[in-house]
Amino acid sequence: MSRKLSVALFAPLCLAACASQPTPGAPPTATGQTGATASYGYSSHVPDFATRNYEPFNRQDLVAIAMREWRLFGSPVNDDDPEDRPEPQTAAVKPERAPGLWERVGEYWWIGMEPSMTEASWTGKHDANGQLTDFVHDGNYAWSAAFISYVMRVSGANSRFPYSPNHSTYINAAASGQSPILRAQNPANYTPKLGDLICVGRGRAKTTVNFSSLPTSYGFPAHCGYVVAVNQNGQPFGRQLSIIGGNIDDAVALTHVPTDPQGRISSPSGQSYDTRYPWCAVLEVLFDAESEPDAGM
Fold first, then answer.
1. Distance from chain centroid for Cα 237
2. pLDDT (tens digit, 9 = 90+) per residue, 43-57?
3. What domain range includes position 217?
4. What is the dihedral of CA 44, 45, 47, 53, to 10 degrees?
5. Domain count along the chain
6. pLDDT band at 42 (very low <50, low <70, confident <90, very high)
7. Region Disordered: start and end of each range (predicted)?
8. What pTM did the predictor assign?
């Protein structure tokens, strides 16, 4: 082969290779993107389809992802009062430690957290060093906020959501206007929509944190769940909606929440209709696209 011919063949190959190399430190391009801008920050932990928003951040995908995770854990429904739930006495009965599921909880941590966070290396039964955790006192590794963060990340929220191992981080971000895709709404006058988060304080915060006290200047224990069904008639409450949350009896579980005929979860005076949960806020999620999933279940 002549030198001239080899150079001619090499040139287009070099151009193709050079064109495929991203600029160091630059966000990925938006090839294939149909909706929101993709330059919201990048993490090697995050699937490319979510980072580059192959589809606009939308309600339908978020609800579908939450329900997929619920089905993976066996579709448990938990309408018990959390104050009455006994703590499992053996590791064998904890779904988060079961084969195939402890790894999934690890993915919630890995994808939902930022790479610099120690929690990113946790699993459903291991700490960041790969050591088995104490299954009796595993509250130190509670993953309900990691589940919320995972669903947000995979559904394409990018860096617009304040990913955190603590629910209060994004409750306060929504209440203070620090997140462009979250807006805190008063449960007394707002009707939750599919994909929204409804939140409650836990422990002392169950009675001390309400909508009027938000945002707080401190972190507090809390729990949030994604609304996956609305305008329901059925047991156990009659009028109700359904939420899916993580780390409910060590699983991803569905909970029914009583509502009034307008679909609200609190009375006009602010009294929660749910005797188990004095809801402190609804976090309205602002999507790039408004494709509505089926509200029925």
1. 26
2. 678 999 999 999 999
3. 56-285
4. -70
5. 1
6. low
7. 75-96
8. 0.84
